[in-house]
Every structure is written in structure tokens, then in C-alpha cells.
Design a protein that fits this description.
Helix content of chain A: under 10%
Number of strands of chain A: 12
Shape of chain B: globular
Shape of chain A: globular
Distance between the termini of chain B: 37 Å
Largest sheet of chain B: 7 strands, mixed
Distance between the termini of chain A: 38 Å
Structural class of chain A: mainly beta
Radius of gyration of chain A: 14 Å
Largest interface: A-B, 26 and 25 residues
Strand content of chain A: over 45%
Radius of gyration of chain B: 13 Å
Number of helices of chain B: 0
Oligomer: heterodimer
Number of strands of chain B: 11
């Protein structure tokens, strides 16, 4: 089974609008971390936001927020007030803490912000 | 914040030569470094986990003799693509983590290898 599933290969959003990128995960480890990374065309992986499995509140970092629904095993990324510079690939990732610390990445979502 | 430097960013080599890619953690000690390979428009594929002072743990299907990984210090890991062939052309990206646990993985900028 896939550890991380991103079902949206491509997304479009109007500039200044909000967009939600979907991510579901699968783990039996009670302790895990969820991450979102942005990869622009230059190739670098830029860390955006982190959510721990025991965190009670949804993580927020500026225009980024993570909609963490533990029972549904989903960790959707919400980008508010989209900017042209947000156009990039976005990867959801999970790290299982007690079973080896390995990171698992989703297949990514390509986001295009339309002016 | 944590910074990982990866060098070279681009390399072009002839088939049959070996190429070394360096990954350095600049302002922290990385007990564990990960090496990934990424094909165009695809996700990152974990190649190996590198622990300082010990042999790397390779993922299934990754040739140990083809992709030599050395983690000689807490700040440096190297990936050597030996006897490179055109099919080894890819984007290689390293990452490092400060301590075990749910810590952020910091990535290098990646190295684009083209084998002619």
C-alpha cells in the first residue's frame, strides 16, 4: 500500500485565491510527522510546514496551513492568497518515528497559479 | 536554520567515468543523510540511508557497487556514481536531519547528472 497518496497530479488556481492540495497517508506507527515541501523548477526542495501526529492544533506557517484530520489520515495543505511564485511541484511526506525514521514521499501535485 | 550544501549542481561526464557528489551540512551535525534520485516529473526515490561511521543502507534495487556512499564525518556524505552510463543521468538530491525523530529533513539543492 502507498504510504503517501496525492491524488491531484495538477492543479490550477487564480492568483490571490486559496487552494487546497490533498494528501492522505497510511501508517500504523503511533508517532509520525507529516511534511509539505515545495519544489520549484530549479529543483531544490523547500520545506513548508510540519505537523506531528500528537499535535492537537493544525500547523500554520504564514500563508500555509495544514488541515490535519487524524481519523481520516489526511494532511491537506492549504495555500491562501496564492501568488505567481507559488507555481511549483508540491510533495507531501511522512516520517515514521518508531519504525526507522524513513521519509516517504507522495507523487506530487503540480500547482499553477494563473494571473 | 539548517543548511545543506550539495556540490556540484550540474555535471556532464562521458560514459564510463565516475562522478562524485558531495553533501555537506553547514551549520549542524547530521548523523543521518539520505540520498534520493528523481526522474523528470516524478517523486523522489530513496536510494540509500547514510549513517556517519557505518555502511550505508541501500534500498532494494539500488546497486551498492554502482552508487558508492560514504559518510565519513558528521557533516559530509558523498555519493559516487561509478562507471556512469547514460541511464544514470538523473537528478540526485541529498538530505540531512539533525537528530532522529520527527525533525525536518533539510535538502541540498540537488545535482543534475548528464552522462553522454
Amino acid at each position: 500500500a502507498q504510504k503517501i497518496t496525492q491524488t491531484q497530479p495538477g492543479m490550477f488556481v487564480q492568483e490571490k485565491e486559496a487552494v487546497t492540495l490533498d494528501c492522505t497517508y497510511d501508517t500504523s506507527d503511533p508517532s509520525y510527522g507529516l511534511f509539505w515541501y515545495k519544489q520549484p523548477s530549479s529543483g531544490e526542495m523547500i520545506f513548508l510546514i510540519y505537523q506531528g501526529s500528537y499535535d492537537q492544533q493544525n500547523a500554520t506557517e504564514g500563508r500555509y496551513s495544514l488541515n490535519f484530520q487524524k481519523a481520516r489520515k489526511s494532511a491537506n495543505l492549504v495555500i491562501s492568497a496564492s501568488q505567481l511564485g507559488d507555481s511549483a511541484m508540491y510533495f507531501c511526506a511522512m516520517r515514521e518515528v518508531t519504525t526507522g525514521n524513513q521519509f516517504y514521499f507522495g507523487t506530487g501535485t503540480s500547482l499553477t497559479v494563473i494571473p | 536554520g539548517a543548511v545543506v550544501s550539495q556540490h556540484p549542481s550540474r555535471v556532464i561526464c562521458k560514459s564510463g567515468t565516475s562522478v562524485k557528489i558531495e553533501c555537506r551540512s553547514l551549520d549542524f551535525q547530521a548523523t543521518t543523510m539520505f540520498w534520493y534520485r528523481q526522474f523528470p516529473k516524478q517523486s523522489l526515490m530513496l536510494m540509500a540511508t547514510s549513517n556517519e561511521g557505518s555502511k550505508a543502507t541501500y534500498e532494494q534495487g539500488v546497486e551498492k557497487d554502482k552508487f558508492l556512499i560514504n559518510h565519513a564525518s558528521l557533516t559530509l556524505s558523498t555519493l559516487t556514481v561509478t562507471s556512469a552510463h547514460p541511464e544514470d543521468s538523473s537528478f540526485y538530491i541529498c538530505s540531512a536531519s539533525m537528530v532522529s525523530g520527527a525533525n525536518v529533513l533539510t535538502f541540498g539543492a540537488g545535482s543534475r547528472l548528464t552522462v553522454l
